[in-house]
Queue: 2 jobs
Job 1
Amino acid sequence: MKGIVIFALALATSCPADDLKLEPTFTCCSVICGVERQENAVMEIREAGASEWKAVRLPYHYSLERQYRGSIWGLREDTDYELRFRAGERERARGRFRTWRSDVPIARTVVIDPATVKFPLVVSEKGTEDGWVRLAVKGGRLEAPQTARCCLLVTNACYVVIDDLTLRGGDGAVIRITESDFVRVRHCDIADWGMDGYRPVFDKLGALRQWDARRKRWGHGNHSGGIDLCKGVRGIVVERCYIHEPRSRAHAWRYSHPYGPMAIRLCDTGGNHVIRWNDLVGCDAHRFDDVIGGGVDFSELGTFNRDSDIYGNFMAFANDDCLEIDGGQQNVRVFGNRSEASYMGVSVQGCVVSPSYVFDNIFTGGNDEFDDLSASIKTAGIDVYRFHPRCYVFDNFFWGRGDAMNMAKNEARLDVRRNTCYGPYQAFAGLDRRSDYPTMGDNRTNLVVAACPAGDWPHRPIPYVLDTSRIDGVRLAKGAVSPRSARVTLTCGGTGYRQPFEVMMNDRTGWVKVSPARGTIESGKTIVFDLTFD
């Protein structure tokens, strides 16, 4: 995994080496170029060795810091690139970087026997970028008692892969990662963490009381995640995981600010994380606070801090935000996700450092447990800092009730373009009424339509299409379900694709049966799923 973090060498003496910084991920790269604002400035990129340069979006110039700062996306994994910055014909800076690779080399595998584990299981292995350490468990399952702080405690580790495990338990997180760099959690089934029980008695702050088995007392509903990323961790990847059904639940805004478990929680981390292709699904009986959240809303670190990607995730059943990237947001990119059944979609409030990008997502079916909702994108407090933050919102699709964005009074630093709304209430209220928005997108490029577009969200590297991605209208009346069944057809495209699948559902979804529950997806073939409702 060479080139996880590369400070590129500048070839032009007008821009010192330390003033061009490139921070890649799998398909994106953050760019900081420390020069004064240039006339006729252009930024270009090419694969190493290619003859032609391609112009990319010029980053915004932050005058106080005297630097251009922005992101490039749509890159290929495990590929060398060259980047140059020029003004007219004069080259001001040039650098190289290599995007991350998915198939990291495994040097050794540590096999854990569940019969001998004392919880939490402490993981402090240290690999290298050329030889990672893989953690495996006999039988593939670890279940911590409720009195344990967590199931896995990853601390002082680096270049570690936690792969293909079923993990349960802990009254805090299932996996807690602290003081570690470059850890990957992939293909894991994570559930059943946090405090147990539920007492519908609220303290003076409006927070639920829940049973704390470790301390043997009733306490506040805990704020931990299925995966907790703690202060200082850097370069964490969570991919293709199924995180669902905590023991506890979050209360709704009807009482006070929601408080409770999250699927993934981050707080004051070092950044450079990737959260991709995960199913993060609560249920009405076990709703999340935020599906992904944490951090201090208006700090310079906040949730993801910097140089991070969140894409291809399905996020559902939160009493607050599906995704919270509050605070920091220096080159934080949110794209290709699907958000539904939550009070809000994505929160970009407290965009302190910036820039951040929210694009090519679908926001649909907003509601908390009382069917209340706010907006798909929350923007409060984005323009209260001296850093002149910028947040770009474009090419998203909003489907359902509520406002697309709840615009607070000072958001002069939003650029909102080419978004589409479908539904009775969706709107971009206020965007065309403000004359003090120097970077505001043309509101005429934001559309309200009467039909849903074709397409599949979340976006994932699997060449299949479903004839429907959402089944609505199932009703229960006088003990009878109507309709009793539904059918979904999957068509697999591509060439030579072949992959086994398994349909996985929350425990609380026992009233739905799917057939076939297992099989193989193959290019050129279709699969018809029969769903029955009890």
Job 2
Amino acid sequence: QPLKDIHLRSKYDYELAGNGNLTYLKYLGIAALFILFIAWINYVNLSTAHSLDRTKEIGVRKVAGAGKFQLIRQFLGESLFLNIIAIILGILLFRFTLPHFSTLVQKDINSLLVTDWSFWFFTVMVLLGGTLLAGFYPAFVLSSFHPIQAIKKSTGISGIKSGKNILRKSLVVLQFVAAIVLIAGAVGFYRQLRFMQNRDLGVNINQTLVVNQTGNVDSTQIPSFNAFINDMRANSAISSVTASTSVPGGEVGNSSSYALKNSPVSKRCRNLGIDKEFIPAYGLTILAGRNFTNDKPAVDTNLVLNILVNETAAKIFGFTTPADIVGEEIDGSGFHCKVIGLVKDYHQESLEYSFDPIVFYPEEERNFGNFSLKINTNNLPALMDFVKQKWTTYFPQSPYNFFFLDQRFNAQYNDDKLFATVLWLFTAIAITIACLGLFGLSLYTIAKRKKEISIRKVLGATLYQVTSMITKDYLKLVLFAGLIALPAAFLLVNGWLKKYAFHIDLGLWFFILPVLFIVTIAVLTVLYQSLKAAVANPVKNLRK
């Protein structure tokens, strides 16, 4: 495996903690490009919308001898100038907000520098691409005006005006397509995150303090293990104590190949060493057979080892009715095993992963690495001091390491929570930029239609009729954008959800919430200017 692939592209079993997630980075990169795309569309829209105000300027320039390509260079220069200012402000904003973003993502990126050549290469490409994409069409439209028509009334260029209206509407649709896709993605991810956090895990991880054994131990330490457990159980603030090789919230420590007796086909299962208190302490369910009582631990390979298996393990061994595996003999991990019980599947890890086949076996005390204490107290500091004092007394060679199990389990979703926060932030920025463009475009459109609105009011048009006349055009565009965006968003979000073994279904809410949200925002954006125009004195507008 290439060393450089480990951080973002490695998904092996028993991976060291701390890996990044390339999928999240790709989605955030797409969201960033959507934001940039929406900003470019705003520039094109507003530039072409205001082009009629510059027709006389263009006509005079052409009469004075300016050629078409000179005008194109001028307008591309304007676009380049604005893009340069935006790049400079963006870099300054990046440097200013980097410490805050570092706190948000919980990574030390304050030292992130912009001296790498690839950063500047990408910046220059964005600058040139933005200049051409945002400036080329306005430059082409503005430089194409005929000087005689341009010097006359601007309304004489009806063909160009009509074409630009179609383009502006198309671009408005495109930017709201991007915004709706982002909203749908953010809503879908948020609901998946809530689903994972609220789903019944099938295992009780609440009020569980886990003390981790990291020191080297041998059989001479067995009395210390027993004494420690007895002291914990004697404390009224601790309702139960259990020891195991692994606990929920991460992969089971190791795995081995197992095969049914007289079968050549082997299956790989996770090995989880537990004591007889583990099943009841964690609230696991025995579906068939029995729990461990005084079963001998995995020491002598010449003796039959009693084991428990979960439902998934029973299924991979070919039992359509999992309970039928009870009583079967299985060979694996150097032992001859007999299945004495079937455990209901539970979520050992986050819901990103499916149920693993697990073999539970009775383990020696000295091989237990985790002591799970189910606590019930209002005086947690005193209990923590008690546990620490007993631990250092019985295991002076082992550091006192502990964690609360629910916090550790939920820590599996830290990256998901962080991604959701950043994605909502990006979505809010995209919506704001899209609405700013819509606000500017509607402001310009209403300014051009002031006399029409005034005449309608004089002829008896009501406030509702005037405002609905203006807002319905934009409402149609947003709804049309929803028709385009939702299938794309569905494919994107549904494809992303498939990486989770357990995920939500994209129901009717997925198609209603994003469109309803963006329609509300868009209508409110246009409605202010519409109401302002509708209540204005028509006499003042008709005098101009």
